[in-house]
Amino acid sequence: MVEKYADWQAWLHDYIVGQRALRIHAFILEKAALAPVLTEKTPRSVLDVGCGGGQAALRLKSLYAHLTITGIDLTESQIVRACQRAKSKQADVQFEVADAQALPYADASFDVVFSFGSVKHWPDPLQGVSECWRVLKPGGDLLLVDSTSDASRGQLLNFLKVAGIPGLLRPLLGTFLDKILVRPARPMTTYYQIAEQLNLPQGTVTQPDYMPTVLFRTRKPLSKNS
Ligand SMILES: C[S@@+](CC[C@H](N)C(=O)[O-])C[C@H]1O[C@@H](n2cnc3c(N)ncnc32)[C@H](O)[C@@H]1O
């Protein structure tokens, strides 16, 4: 399990993976039915947890200007790059250094909380998911996605297809990613237990057949007195 995200990993992700990952994000947002939520022309505050170099947050802002978007990441160099990107695009997106396991926001601050590919780096995923849930408003949408060791080769190959990797390269790259991304990840049982411990709504955690990932996807119930 990768727990400390090194600067070289951040650099590699930012310059080689980050832009390509946007295809995966768009695919999952659509499949997980979050895209329609973001398109609705009502003001919404969105938190991207483990935002990396900010590509996903900035893409969303360019598509849906009505969103108020904040991205947080524990790696300072990523936040520096994200801020530079926002500045060069003149995009009004806030980026700050923060730990997913201790989010610096009040309860019920955001309408949408999402995270792509970051949960596996959180030493205490229970605490991290609990924080995402805490800062989500009642009625708000949660989407957390990351690899799981229970993924099949078919799911991994589909991931590479969606990422736009040419067919000939997929088997070899698949074998490599299986070693570095899938095998070291956490099993689905860990995520089911987290959902149970946090009392998340039934069906929040699934393993979608189209990706080598776990999916936390739910809408936070409205509180009885709201
Ligand atoms: C694989 S990258 C994913 C970046 C981006 N979400 C994407 O999909 O392109 C994982 C990110 O999680 C961040 N991260 C790791 N541990 C974290 C923590 N405890 N709190 C916040 N971010 C964390 C890393 O710094 C890194 O930028």
CATH H-tier superfamily: Vaccinia Virus protein VP39
CATH topology group: Rossmann fold
Name the quaternary structure.
Answer: single chain
The separation of the N and C termini measures 40 Å
pLDDT under 50 segments (min length 5)?
A: none
Largest sheet: 7 strands, mixed
- Beta-strand segment tally: 7
Order of H and E elements: HHEHEHEEHEHHHEE
Query: Any idea what the radius of gyration is?
Result: 17 Å
| Order of strands in the sheet with most strands | 3-2-1-4-5-7-6
Class from helix and strand fractions: alpha/beta
Number of domains: 1
Shape category: globular
β-sheet strand percentage: 15-25%
**Treating each run of at least 4 consecutive H or I residues as one helix, how many helices?**
8
Q: Assign the CATH class.
A: Alpha Beta
